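Appendix B, Record 12. Input sequence as logged:
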Amino acid sequence: GLYVGRIYEEVKGRPRHVIAETLTPTPVAKTKAKVVKSAG
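Logged structural output:
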């Protein structure tokens, strides 16, 4: 719960589909998550 909440706080300013992909445990999602953190 806390982990997901922290992710939400980091990406709440971004499109919902980005959040969904970030929460999906796939290599593609992990790559996008890194891109989001780099951009943020």
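Residues 27-39 form the longest helix (13 residues).
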